[in-house]
Amino acid sequence: MVACSVALLKAKLTNWFLPRLTERGNRGRIRAGRDPGGARASRTRCEHGEACRLIEEAAGRGATIAVFGEGGLAGHPIVAVLPSTPLRWAARAEHIDSAIAVPSDTTDRLCKAAKRAGIDVVIGIAELDARTKSTVYCTHLFSGREARILGKHRELKPIAQERTVCGEGDGSTLSVYERP
Predict the structure, then answer these.
(1) Buried (b) or exposed (e) across 106-135, using 16+ Cβ within 10 A?
(2) Residues ≥6 apart with Cβ < 8 Å to 139
(3) According to the model, what pLDDT value does residue 40 have?
(4) Which of helix, strand or coil describes residue 123?
(5) From edge to edge, which strands make up the β-sheet containing 120-128?
(6) Mean pLDDT of 111-125
(7) 160 pLDDT higher than 70
(8) What's the CA angle centered on 14, arms 46 and 50, to 5 degrees?
(9) Would you call 83 helix, strand, or coil by DSSP?
(10) Degrees (nearest 5) of the Cα angle 167, 149, 79?
């Protein structure tokens, strides 16, 4: 019951938090599609193909880059702002459990989806620190149309409530990626 409630809570909160699909042109050179659905729950999104499907849908609409919001894959740590209850602690535990390592099978699937669609992808993930196996970062993962990880950016200063769940980035992941 707790796991089901946590998943429903995360789905409701993240669907409220993330925007709907929009397409914009940038002087005819770049078309970007934003995530239409928001994070559902846990890391099931790419494993069940939803993120991969949305990447292909964005390419089908003419996008050259698909941009997903913070928490696009493993959910947003918005559970940190809930009152201190057993449900909050269970939600926080699930958020940590749903974090993904970079690289991993999940990131490989995202890269392959980007290659199939022929577009670049920026997607928010809950990144599990490979060294500590317990620190989670709010991270944007950059995947290239060549089926490889271009890089990642860890949020430098999570808001106060997020800091109870997420680590702070150190600036070492701030990069610019030249794209064709």
Answers:
(1) bbeebbebbbebebbbbbbbbbbbeeeeee
(2) 102, 124, 125, 126, 127, 152, 153, 154, 155, 169, 173
(3) 39
(4) strand
(5) 23-26, 30-34, 65-67, 120-128, 136-144, 148-154
(6) 95
(7) yes
(8) 20
(9) coil
(10) 30
Residue 74: both structure tokens together = 């493993």
25 is written with which tokens?
Answer: 């042109």
pTM above 0.85, yes or no: no
- For residue 62, the number of C-alpha atoms closer than 13 Å in the C-beta half-sphere is 9
Residue 84's pLDDT band, with cuts at 50, 70 and 90, is: confident
Residues in the chain, overall count: 180
pLDDT band at 50 (very low <50, low <70, confident <90, very high): confident
Phi, psi of 146 (to 5 degrees): -90, 10
Crossing angle of helices 86-97 and 2-17, in 10° steps, is: 80
